[in-house]
Amino acid sequence: MMWQEFSTLFGEYWQQFVLIASAHALAVASPGPDFAIVMRQSIIFGRRFAIITSLGIGLAIFVHVTYAVLGIGLLIKSTDWLFMLIQLAGASYLIYIGWGALGSKAHKTLGKVEQEQERPVMTDGKAFRQGFITNVLNPKATLFFLSLFTTLVGPETPLLMQGFYGVWMAFATAAWFAFLSYILASKQVRGFFNKFGHWIDRILGGFLIALALLLLWSILSRFI
Q: In degrees rounded to 5, what are phi and psi of residue 191?
């Protein structure tokens, strides 16, 4: 019964789905905090932790979809101080991650055991949290979903379809970043980054901090 209802609705809303999927694909593919954190995980910690981080990013999509569907997105959009608070939290977290990356040190010529001891500690839970929090506090993602669910998706769109859009975007996001994790953590790529990885890590850290500073400037400019 549910499948029949969904098939009927999809036949009616497939054009809307194509627009949403296309807009989402462009947004996900563009460089931002999510890309930077996945790239850093791939280079520093390897494929496993990068993929787990990607899953955290994908799951965080449900947070954005939930507040958009429930109408909280309209509240955020219309309440300047609340949206500014979200932006400040996002900027602070980007600075936190970026500052840690700036402190990256060059790999010494050590034995395998010594290299493992020199490498920063990473766990499955920490990798997942970093991906999840980075996306939840990503102002770019917040703005995207606020725009998406106030333009392309309207109140007349059935909740079943809105839920499907959310599932699709979460899956597509996780799949994209998992694919990047696989590529960036390959032996050829990591072989290159073993020599220059600390510089790449520092550049990514600077990129994250630059994003945070731009975000803080956009907040400050409202009061100037």
A: -60, -40
Contacts (Cβ under 8 Å, ≥6 apart) of 71: none
pTM: 0.70
End-to-end Cα spacing for the chain = 57
| Both tokens assigned to 50 | 């990068």
- Asked if 172 and 72 touch (Cβ cutoff 8 Å), the reply is no
Name residues whose C-beta falls within 8 Å of residue 72's C-beta, 6 or more positions apart in sequence. Answer: 66
Cα→Cα distances 61→138, 163, 169, 190, Å: 11, 12, 7, 29
Contact 166, 61 (CB under 8 A): yes
CA-CA distance, 179 to 200, in Å (whole number)?
A: 20
| Backbone dihedral angles phi then psi of residue 105, each to the nearest 5 degrees | -110, 155
214 contacts 90 by C-beta, under 8 angstroms: no
Chain segment 79-133, per-residue pLDDT in tens: 777 767 766 776 776 677 677 767 666 544 434 444 444 556 789 999 999 999 9
Mean pLDDT calculated for residue range 147-164:
76
Q: In terms of Cα–Cα distance, which of 10, 33, 21 is closest to 148?
A: 21
Question: Which residue is listed with tokens 């500073």?
Answer: 213
3-state secondary structure of 45: coil
Q: How many helices (H) and strands (E) does the chain have?
A: 10, 0
24, amino acid identity:
H
Nearest to 34 by CA among 172, 167, 148: 172
